[in-house]
Amino acid sequence: MNFQQLRSVREAARRGFNLTEVAQVLFTSQPGVSRQIRDLEEELGVDIFERHGKRLTGLSEPGKGILQIIEKLLVQAENLQRASQDFAGKTSGALTIATTHTQARYVLPQVVQSFRRSFPDVRIALQQSAPEHIAEWVISGKADIGIATEGLREFGELLSFPCYRWSHVVVAPQGHPLLKQTPLRLEDLAQWPLITYDSGFTGRGHIDEAFAAAGLKPDIVLTAMDSDVIQQYVQLEMGVGIVASMAITQKEGSLRAIEAGHLFAPNVTRLAVRRGAWLRSYALDFICEFAPTLERSAIITALQQDQAPAA
Q1: Where does residue 54 rank: exposed (0-12), middle (13-18), buried (19+ CB within 10 A)?
Q2: Model confidence, pTM
Q3: What per-residue confidence (pLDDT) applies to 251?
Q4: Among 129, 202, 252, 302, which residue has the least CB neighbours within 10 Å?
């Protein structure tokens, strides 16, 4: 049994049993992948995959349990390498952060800048996508840390921490009638075409819930993933925007923000890591830089408890 065999099985499951894709990911040939899988099955004395001819079609019942063990073994192998680097006192390496556009654009710049001053030899990669993709990247090990407002705590494979609370604001062009509404009401908003986030992004769920609870059906004429895009279309007077409070850009005074914290439930940005993963010391420093309310010792305790073998 070797790690290449284990990786071949794991990637086959991840890549929809497409061995051509598995070979590309593992930098080998398709026959090589097939041989690795067959050798492991023969050693274990059980078929991990179901087949139609030579083509893999799914996991067998024993294979489902074996895959879980393989995932844990490979995670621990990665942990061993990371731990050895920490114990050797190395402060260089890579840190991959999967996050949304809003976090990457408005929250992370100062955090990354400060972190780089402390760890100039750490290379940072920012990956931006939807919360479900962020979760998938962290679970698969493609990212070390995931940051998003919605969805991260719904994945059992992730250990997530609340970081900070924020609210939505309404943005409208100068002179818009809504600027005279004090305090702003949902009924007032519902009279105008609205521009806001796609479903599943940046607290959109709380926006929908508020209108539904009030028995209102807003006319959401345009949605986008990016706060900048939403504000751009508001500037074109295509509608009134609802965006995250940290995303306000008053470009040349063309937009005005209206407090809307009383209209929509507050949101919580969460940071997630893969359960059982070993975080490099500098990764822990990054987390504490991003969320000063989190104590390093509490994070370590949560990770250690999660790494402990089941009784």
Answers
A1: exposed
A2: 0.73
A3: 52
A4: 252
